[in-house]
Design a protein that fits this description.
This protein is an alpha/beta fold. The chain has one domain. The protein is 50% helix and 13% strand. It contains five helices and three strands, in the order H-E-H-H-E-H-E-H. It has a three-stranded parallel β-sheet, with helices on both faces. Helix 4 crosses helix 5. The two termini are 23 Å apart.
Amino acid sequence: MAWVREAAGLRLPELELNVMLGVFPDGPGSEAMRQATRRAAGWMGLDLDTALRSEEAMPLLLTGPREHLVEQVMVLRERYGITCCNASNFAAEAMAPVVERLSGT
């Protein structure tokens, strides 16, 4: 994010920062979460153990019950300035209550 902020300069408030989320409501121990973490860790040059232990290392992979998903999206907004989040249609059921909860905030 640092290079985006630097490149945008004074235009940063005008930008929409959009991310694609991986959503795993079954929790961090699910096989789907481990596979997604393994792939993303490789792209980011992280070792798998670090990626699995830290939400901060992999902030775009959301996991857990609804309220935890809400908290994770709020962190993306507050810490990274993310203004728009997308998720696959496979995550629609898990994300619907999150979107409802965050609507208008």
